[in-house]
Write a structure and sequence with these properties.
By secondary structure, this protein is mainly α. The protein has 2 domains: about 1-40, no CATH class; about 45-73. Helices cover about 65% and strands about 0% of the residues. It has 3 helices and no strands. The protein has helices spanning about 15-30, 30-40, 45-70.
């Protein structure tokens, strides 16, 4: 659901004031908060993907320990 925020410049109003009013309306509409939430959103990985990653990590660790015992690391 898009929310449009529109600000028009009044007579004898500086551009800095217009920008300030615009940012204030953006914050009050909750758009800034939504964008920040979306920016750092991370999907949860499926159980199969997590399981495969864990198995791969365990295999890698096992291989490292084997090489360490042989003195190759």
């Amino acid at each position: 659901m898009p929310i449009n925020v529109q600000v028009e410049k009044n007579q004898n109003e500086s551009s800095a004031n217009v920008i300030r009013r615009f940012t204030k309306r953006m914050q009050n509409a909750g758009i800034v908060r939504k964008m920040r939430d979306r920016r750092f959103y991370e999907r949860t990985k499926s159980s199969n993907v997590r399981k495969e990653a864990r198995l791969k990590k365990l295999a890698k660790k096992e291989n490292y320990e084997k090489m360490y015992k042989l003195g190759k690391v």
